[in-house]
Amino acid sequence: MQSTTIDVEKLSAARKHEDMEFRPKFVQHVMVKRNLWHVISISIQKIKQIWLIYMMCFMMEHYRFNRSAGAKLNETYLPPYK
């Protein structure tokens, strides 16, 4: 099983890109995050198999505990930020 590695040279090149000097700070961060996402997604595509360590934690039971447990939590989504 291969581990995912991030190409640090590509990230540093993206950060030092001359285009980014003229952009506002928040746009620079978005661009770096996007570049990081592309590098990670490319390295993840190279992995042949992904193994789940604890398979039973991800098993869904159709008409048992998993289906009704969410309703018993008495928690709701928070309202959106303004």
Automatic annotation (TrEMBL):
Lineage: superkingdom: Bacteria
Protein's name in the database: Uncharacterized protein
Organism classification: Bacteria, Bacillati, Bacillota, Bacilli, Bacillales
